[in-house]
């Protein structure tokens, strides 16, 4: 992918940097791998808002992605690279020898016509999925399982990669994109390579309307509200928040307050916490 700086012919394009989608080779999704995606607007099954500032947005169709890569020892050919509105990384349509089609996350360097395979006997090359015990130390991987057979849960966004640092007994030591070092069982699967669409982080939407198209509604500062609506509200002019530290809309601390639950079972697999 390459980025394009828009000509400043309008206020909305003055600071806009967009993707020109030159890496896309297939522009219509595979209908057999698509399902309807109902809009939730940030609401849970009870109809209550659980994630604020969500709503509206363009219609989307969900593409079924094969995170498990459980069709083993059968070679597949990459039929096309597609855009997925539900994620920031490209997806690749692959067709197996038995004519079954699936979507996988497209790693950097994967092209139309390449062969990909999954299983313990697969070759160590970009796009192939193998158990960690069959991947050489020092390799760059993505779409890593946390538990065998569950499907990839780590490193699934644009440009993400995980480094395989070492293997000790039944566990492999991984360095995650956050800097955290974690032990994962060597029977868990991972895919070789770094995910593509690296320049996605450099995109500038340029105008508020582009954010509304993504289903994100405006976020209002607490200091701009009334005291009855937010703890930061009230005061004459720009009076600050009037607190020793920032609070949420419901009076809970929002900085320096740990949100991760303590004493989790998986804590014993974390060797080093994330940076900072």
From TrEMBL:
Recorded GO CC terms: large ribosomal subunit
Domain Large ribosomal subunit protein uL2 RNA-binding: start-end pairs: 42-118
Top-level taxonomic group: Bacteria
One Pfam family in the UniProt entry: Ribosomal_L2_N
Every Large ribosomal subunit protein uL2 C-terminal domain range: 124-253
GO biological process: cytoplasmic translation
Region described as Disordered: 225-253
GO MF annotation terms: rRNA binding; structural constituent of ribosome; transferase activity
Gene3D superfamilies, per database record: 2.30.30.30, Nucleic acid-binding proteins (2.40.50.140), Ribosomal protein L2, domain 3 (4.10.950.10)
Sorted UniProt keywords: Ribonucleoprotein, Ribosomal protein, RNA-binding, rRNA-binding
InterPro entries listed in its UniProt record: NA-bd_OB-fold, Rib_uL2_dom2, Ribosomal_uL2, Ribosomal_uL2_bac/org-type, Ribosomal_uL2_C, Ribosomal_uL2_CS, Ribosomal_uL2_dom3, Ribosomal_uL2_RNA-bd_dom
Role description: One of the primary rRNA binding proteins. Required for association of the 30S and 50S subunits to form the 70S ribosome, for tRNA binding and peptide bond formation. It has been suggested to have peptidyltransferase activity; this is somewhat controversial. Makes several contacts with the 16S rRNA in the 70S ribosome.
The family this protein is said to belong to: Belongs to the universal ribosomal protein uL2 family.
NCBIfam families registered for this protein in UniProt: rplB_bact (TIGR01171)
Oligomer and partners: Part of the 50S ribosomal subunit. Forms a bridge to the 30S subunit in the 70S ribosome.
Protein name: Large ribosomal subunit protein uL2
Species, as recorded: candidate division WOR-1 bacterium RIFOXYB2_FULL_36_35
Encoding gene per record: rplB
